[in-house]
Design goal:
There is one protein chain. The protein is globular, with a radius of gyration of 17 Å. The chain has a three-stranded mixed β-sheet, with no helix packed on it. Strands 1-2 form a two-stranded antiparallel ribbon. It folds into two domains: about 80 residues, Orthogonal Bundle (Arc Repressor Mutant, subunit A); about 55 residues, Dna Ligase, domain 1 (2-Layer Sandwich). A hairpin with a 5-residue loop joins strand 3 and strand 4. The protein has about 140 residues and is of the alpha+beta class.
Length: about 140
């Protein structure tokens, strides 16, 4: 989604559009590094030195709630955000904790992976996460 479209969506849902929110949207736009809140904070503080970490947390929470970013649980204590909310999977390296996008285009229908006992459920999302050691970390050992 383009930044202007995202701003219009947030406005239509009653959110104020602040310069700090727009700066965070720009930082996230096409960001494939899957930043955590601290990464976003380090980037936005260069533009708005008075912004607080709490503001960044609040903006990220709003963006996730509104479906603009997707939260990825890398570990029990580390959360990353993905501005690409289109269907795709992730590979998470257990050594460096980098997150890599994984195309699902080669997989057969993911719906076939859902057990029959869930037939009566209204499933709204499915996450595909591979965990292991990335090539860089594997080459170091």
């Amino acid at each position: 989604m383009e930044i202007e479209e995202t701003i219009a969506l947030l406005k239509s849902r009653g959110y104020r559009i602040t310069p700090q929110r727009v700066a965070i949207l720009r930082i996230l736009k096409d960001n494939t590094c899957h930043p955590n809140v601290e990464d976003v904070f380090r980037s936005v503080i260069k533009i708005y030195p008075n912004i607080s970490m709490a503001t960044v947390y609040n903006v990220m929470e709003v963006l996730e709630r509104e479906g603009i970013v997707k939260e990825i649980a890398v570990s029990n204590v580390s959360r990353r955000y993905d501005p690409n909310v289109n269907p795709h999977g992730h590979f998470i390296c257990r050594v460096c904790e980098k997150v890599f996008d994984v195309s699902l285009s080669n997989m057969r229908s993911l719906g076939k992976c859902i057990p029959h006992e869930f037939d009566e459920f209204a499933i709204e999302s499915l996450e595909v996460i591979y965990r292991g050691v990335c090539k860089d970390c594997k080459d170091k050992t």
